[in-house]
Design goal:
With 123 residues, the chain is of the alpha+beta class. 15% of the residues lie in helices and 37% in strands. Strands 2-1-6-5-4-3 form a six-stranded mixed β-sheet, covered by helices on one side. The longest helix has 10 residues, at 22-31.
Length: 123
């Protein structure tokens, strides 16, 4: 927890609520620290004040892993982590609703950029 700033903002695509502050992030990390779960980092970007890395999660003896990507940003003065965004893939292989949605409306599987500041709370 020493690497996180007191005012850290932590966003995880699995959860609707944004975690704000070191205590909320601490509780979140503690909730995901249990026997049988292992996080393995895979590929790293070499950013100066921000970085992305891919990872996978192994759950006990499960044959499949869950993969994802994380973005971390540092405060330029303190060099502590001020922002985290975790984006995991679907735990269901293949994602059933996504497959059905793309069959009904093929354009749903196409992503386009959005204008910065166009979403409430977005940056």
């Amino acid at each position: 927890m020493d690497f996180y700033s007191e005012d850290i903002v932590y966003r995880d695509f699995n959860y609707e609520n944004v975690l704000k502050g070191k205590e909320e992030v601490r509780q979140f990390i503690e909730d995901f620290s249990f026997p049988g779960i292992e996080f393995r980092a895979q590929r790293f970007d070499d950013g100066v004040l921000s970085t992305c890395f891919t990872w996978e999660v192994l759950l006990m003896d499960a044959p499949e892993t869950i993969k994802g990507i994380s973005f971390y940003e540092l405060d330029p003065d303190t060099r502590k982590i001020t922002y985290v965004r975790d984006v995991p893939e679907s735990a269901i292989k293949p994602p059933i609703l996504g497959k059905i949605a793309r069959q009904l409306r093929p354009g749903l599987g196409v992503f386009q950029g959005v204008q910065i500041g166009s979403r409430p709370g977005g940056m």
